[in-house]
Design goal:
The protein is mostly beta strands. About 0% of the residues lie in helices and about 40% in strands. It has a four-stranded antiparallel beta sheet with strand order 3-2-1-30, with no helix packed on it. The chain has a four-stranded antiparallel beta sheet with strand order 4-5-6-7, with no helix packed on it. The radius of gyration is 19 Å and the shape is globular.
């Protein structure tokens, strides 16, 4: 059996679970006491990458080429001198939302607050701000913070068939697409709804909480949005509201998809953004097998009483029939039957910001 891991970015460090003959077991932790905003695994090399959210020193980047035996620090992205979030407001790196990898083995994307996308084409030796996106005419006037002071790029979605084609998800602004490796950007928010704005159908100002693309059919994209669950079957050209009829999935942060089957997805719903707790104090997963036409509640093995947990945007992952998610209250759940039943692996972890199966 090949070694397999779950990487957890938590409020108190990187926590790693390892799959053994007995199942998933606690392996070890790293960077104890330091918040890890995102932890991911490079699909090309198997290297682990983490962003450390130092309260005093700011965001830092490290990677391990040997499953945590050693760590190498690389320089975090820096905004060029003179960059401004708004007129008169200097842009500095405040938070690293996501780390993603390109189709080739050298390209790394970093999504940040205050709304900058950085790219390295030499495996992190240096990162460059994508200026055409930063200079997009909508950014200064229509991008704004979704729960934080400034807009954040939390999703970088790469077309597995075209290294020059990718999307970003911005809270709050929406989805943007480039087909020429970041030279030109198009808004891709048609069909989305922003109920919190005077005009819900604005071109820019939407709040996708997480955006994903189906690797086996890149025409299909999903997002858990501030205002519902949305799906596209034309590569983001248009979005359809596929929220469940009972409207339980209208609000939440995370979404997982089956990369073998573009019809399947999972979300962990929550109440409105003013409360942000489990619906009716019961933790459950909504699952669709038909592209969002119908949804099934998956509750077996999950707490159904006095539960306040929610799942943050990067804290759920799917690999074939396995699904793992971690909660804001430090619980970790695993399913090996696509969510039909769940097992609790730990209920005493720190707040879980991110989770990645590798």
């Amino acid at each position: 059996m090949n070694e397999r891991y779950v990487l957890l970015g938590t409020a108190k460090g990187l926590v790693v679970y390892k799959k053994t003959k007995k199942g998933w077991c606690y392996h070890r932790d790293y960077f104890l006491g330091i918040p890890v905003s995102i932890a991911v695994c490079d699909p090309h090399t198997g290297n682990w990458w983490v962003s450390l959210d130092h309260r005093h020193w700011g965001p830092k980047l490290q990677y391990s080429p040997d499953q945590g035996s050693s760590w190498i620090e690389v320089d975090a992205p820096k905004y060029p001198e003179g960059s401004e979030v708004a007129d008169g407001v200097t842009a500095t790196l405040r938070y690293i939302w996501t780390i993603e990898f390109g189709v080739d083995s050298q390209t790394i994307f970093i999504g940040t607050e205050p709304g900058g996308l950085f790219i390295s084409t030499n495996y992190g030796a240096d990162f460059q701000l994508v200026r055409p996106l930063w200079d997009h005419p909508s950014r200064k006037e229509h991008w704004f913070g979704g729960g934080r002071n400034y807009a954040g790029i939390h999703s970088v979605v790469v077309d597995p068939l075209d290294r020059n084609h990718y999307y970003i998800g911005v809270s709050c602004a929406g989805v943007f697409e480039t087909r020429d490796h970041g030279v030109n950007w198009e808004v891709r928010n048609h069909g989305l709804r922003a109920d919190y704005l005077p005009n819900p159908w604005v071109e820019v100002g939407h709040d996708p909480h997480l955006v994903l693309i189906c690797r086996s059919d890149p025409r299909v994209m999903w997002q858990q949005n501030h205002c519902g669950i949305f799906r596209s079957t034309d590569g983001g050209g248009s979005w359809k509201d596929v929220t469940d009829p009972q409207n339980k999935g209208r609000y939440g942060f995370t979404i997982g998809i089956d990369h073998r089957d573009p019809q399947k997805a999972w979300v962990v719903p929550a109440t409105s953004d003013s409360q942000r707790i489990a619906i009716d104090r019961s933790l459950f997963v909504l699952h669709t097998k038909d592209g969002g036409a119908t949804w099934t509640e998956q509750r077996s093995g999950l707490p159904q009483n006095h539960c306040f947990d929610i799942v943050l945007r990067h804290a759920l992952d799917v690999f074939e029939d396995e699904i793992v998610f971690g909660t804001s209250a430090g619980s970790l759940y695993f399913s090996e039957d696509m969510g039909d039943s769940w097992k609790g692996l730990n209920h005493h972890l720190p707040r879980i910001f991110s989770l990645r199966l590798c």
